[in-house]
Amino acid sequence: MENNNNSGDLTDVMKEIRDTLKELIIYTKKKDELEFIPRKEIKNIFKCTDTTVAKIFNRPDFPAIMVGEHKVEKEALRNWCQGRRI
Q: Which one, of 52, 66, 59, lies nearest residue 80 by Cα?
């Protein structure tokens, strides 16, 4: 009887491990995806005017791309923000 209970516990643990591994795979795939922020959202993030956003996107050091509309990749924006600018 006790052996049967242990096998049920082992099955539950194995299911938890399987589910955790599935979540890890999904997280890893999502982490590797590029996430772009459109120009209009930059205005909200920095709480600035359209003119200021235009100046930011026109800076030669700003990592903007143009695919249909101006965008910036999320990690590139984060890295750019960590540098000193005056």
A: 59
Angular region, 47: left φ>0, alpha ψ -120 to 50, beta rest = left
The answer to whether 22 and 29 are in contact (CB under 8 A) is: no
From the DSSP assignment, how many helices (H) and strands (E) are in the chain? 4, 3
User: Tens-digit pLDDT profile for the chain (86 aa)?
Assistant: 455 667 778 889 999 999 888 888 777 766 667 889 999 999 999 999 999 999 999 999 999 998 889 999 999 999 999 988 76
The rounded distance, in Å, linking the Cα atoms of 61 and 75 is 15
C-alpha distance from residue 63 to each of 6, 10, 29, 38, 57 (Å): 57, 51, 24, 12, 8
Q: How much is the pTM?
A: 0.59
